TrEMBL record:
<protein>
    <submittedName>
        <fullName>Uncharacterized protein</fullName>
    </submittedName>
</protein>
<feature type="region of interest" description="Disordered">
    <location>
        <begin position="1"/>
        <end position="20"/>
    </location>
</feature>
Amino acid sequence: MSGPRSAAQRRVIEDADPVTGRLRGTQAQLAALVKRGLAFRHPRPPHDHFLTPAGHRVREAAPEEAQEPAPAPGVFAARVGGEEEPPADGPARLREVRSAWQGLLELRRMTNPDGAVDRPCGWERAHLVRAAALALEAAGHRPAGAGADGYRVRATPQPEAVAVHAPDAGTLAACAVTLERAGWQPGEYSEPRTRTRYLLASPRRV
């Protein structure tokens, strides 16, 4: 049975164990996923619920389903990777990125209750993809685009979490270090079917 899934159901699917597909959620949420053919109840105790192949496909497609809207023309935006018309590289772009990062640190100082600049502020939590991308670009990481391999930052259905993809393990690890230093909590995961590694990163609160 197909049909729109609630935000809670999407979170249950996204939070499934990346290897086994085991689900955690309320009985109502799990029953709804079973009814839609996205999960099944194991016949043996403790009767856990697991994603079906269709459920795995939904989970893998989830990061592409929720994208942040593009900024208005002429407004600075960090490169998230894969833009059709990325801004030109060069000294002017470097200055823009540096200025944007310093402005973000000042915004943290002004809006975080304790004036801390080592963790994200409210604006970043409302613009997760752009904020994570700015942290990466400001640290010198190269985004994907224009025939070049690099990072890609994408929205996810999970609250306060972005997915970061990179062309190789070394780049992915370097992105994780950068995000952690910028006040994010990154964790490395694998896609269940393709085994492709990616980061799931959330703004640190304390």
